[in-house]
Amino acid sequence: MKKGETLLHIFSQHPETFVSGEEISRSLSISRTAVWKQINKLREAGYEFEAVPHKGYRMVSKPDAIQPVALIQALGTSMMGSRLKVLGSTTSTQDEARALAEDGAPEGTLVIAEEQTGGKGRLGRKWFSPAGKGVWMSLILRPNQPLQDTPQLTLLAGVAVCRAVRKMTGLDAGIKWPNDLLVDRRKICGILLESAAEEEHVRYCIVGIGISVNLDETDYPPELQGVATSLKIASGTTVDRTQLIAAVMVEFETLYELYCSQGFQPIASLWEALSVTLGESVTIKNIYGDEVHGVAAGISAAGALLVDMGDGRQVPVFSGDVELKR
Amino acid sequence: MKKGETLLHIFSQHPETFVSGEEISRSLSISRTAVWKQINKLREAGYEFEAVPHKGYRMVSKPDAIQPVALIQALGTSMMGSRLKVLGSTTSTQDEARALAEDGAPEGTLVIAEEQTGGKGRLGRKWFSPAGKGVWMSLILRPNQPLQDTPQLTLLAGVAVCRAVRKMTGLDAGIKWPNDLLVDRRKICGILLESAAEEEHVRYCIVGIGISVNLDETDYPPELQGVATSLKIASGTTVDRTQLIAAVMVEFETLYELYCSQGFQPIASLWEALSVTLGESVTIKNIYGDEVHGVAAGISAAGALLVDMGDGRQVPVFSGDVELKR
């Protein structure tokens, strides 16, 4: 990208105007064919050019890349995002964050990627993470608490992202247990909480957050169309990802401080207020093959979903997939 | 160690006899000083030499190194130890095993080191792991179970090692909750269970096992003398580490199969039979600063220690340090 950067420099000197291929060729001491190749490389990176014979190239738009400097300015947090790693393409921000956590990275370290080639979803699924279109990030937490309390953090993460999305877009986002975000009953965000423990003590948690921000319907593979949506599709406008990341970090920090000082109860209340699951008939399947059918009644003190079985029993469910019956 | 290996070859051709420095110098085409340096390197690795002026060097003893080939022959298991990584010196076999587990290493993968330079104990402590004197190893498990059941594996590991030690040495080893092994009320083994989870599902567990095998009293730093002991100190004889590792793996495999097919109850019964904690007045401190005082009464279905509080209440304790009052 050394040559690509110089090419960008030329266009930044000629905003909105055409620059001839010959002029670029001369400035960079490369052939006309090499100029064309460099332009195409930039197109692949999300830059758009108008090319007109005898006039040359004009830069029409830049990609909406996440800029670390702009993000740092936007953050306004003291801990969350206090250490940043912004990557172009990576296999999975969860794996990047885990490696950092094992190396001793502090609480609040945030890993962001423009693209994930092996993005991970819950229950071993893949997470569709195309370049430049979403917020794919992983946050390191080091809560001083026993392992059995981690389901509470799963719910806290859902509340944080839901509040940020609502504030940024005005969309009526709701939480499907445990922490999927839905708009118009379609998924716009998935959250994956991974944890590492020594016996019963949490060493660290990694909160993976995937928000489908500026995807168009045609960006989705067929199997996701109708199931997934994006903030852009739902709101009709492009959303600034840098500002969205900052908003999520602000909400996360506020809620995490509340959680550390006052415990889980206020988080549970906020979760219940944003839930689209409570009061619904649900079927929950977990990866061990167990199924629970009943009515989602509330959140337990430990962070489990309480399911009314219809026979007076209330069963706590910690993990699984919810199917809402309507 | 290329030259060291050739030096070893020379001594293996002259068992029990002296080889002159001049002869070695000639054979390896190195200076007399270089020979002396090579001899010292081997001494550091645990070889012992007698050096007599005008006669040369005689190898007195070889280190009792763990030999992968001999171990594979001794194992007799189908899963535990089916993949082996035997290291000379490493920071921590837990870290090595974790890296392998993240790379997809299968259940039963075993990492062994002759020496750990940063051996880890429970509750953030260090574990003294000098070269060639102990069994320092980490076993990867991938149990298909929820996170809340991992305390059961902590106890299972203690039972497996205790049974292996008893069979190999005849020593009256007992388990201090949760899984320290004591002989003559001094510690001979520590076990550390680390786990990685995705939400409530265990991705893998790493069982770290440190057995002080052939340490002499003088091998211990002052702060461990009187607190720690070794199989050699307690039994009066050197124990074959390769055979001991094989014995632990056999016991582990048997118990793990029992656990996977019949659940925790039979493991709990075996643990209770080997326990030196049950029936004792105990104080248990955890890392959050909580303390519980009472009489250790039994093991709960979830794997917690049940403590009789003396007022009719029985409290389950999952993690902490036990102090036995006598």
Q: Outline of chain A, from the CA principal axes?
A: elongated
From the alpha-carbon coordinates, what is the Rg of chain A to the nearest angstrom?
A: 23 Å
* Overall number of domains of chain A: 3
Helix content of chain A: 25-40%
CATH class of the largest domain in chain A: Alpha Beta
User: Could you please say which CATH topology of the largest domain in chain A applies here?
Assistant: BirA Bifunctional Protein, domain 2
The portion of residues forming beta strands of chain A comes to 25-35%
Largest sheet of chain A: 7 strands, mixed
- Contiguous low-pLDDT stretches of chain A (5 residues minimum) are none
- What oligomeric state do the depicted chains represent? homodimer
CATH homologous superfamily of the largest domain in chain A - what is it? Bira Bifunctional Protein, Domain 2
**What is the terminal-to-terminal distance of chain A?**
52 Å
What string gives the helices and strands of chain A in order? HHHEEHEHEEHEEEEHHHEEEEE
**Beta strands of chain A, count:** 14
Total helical elements of chain A? 9
Order the strands across the largest sheet of chain A as they lie in space: 3-4-5-9-8-7-6
- The overall pLDDT average of chain A reads 89
Largest interface: A-B, 30 and 30 residues
What labels would you give this structure?
homodimer, 326 residues, alpha+beta, Arc Repressor Mutant, subunit A, BirA Bifunctional Protein, domain 2, SH3 type barrels, 3 domains, 7-stranded mixed sheet, 5-stranded antiparallel sheet, elongated
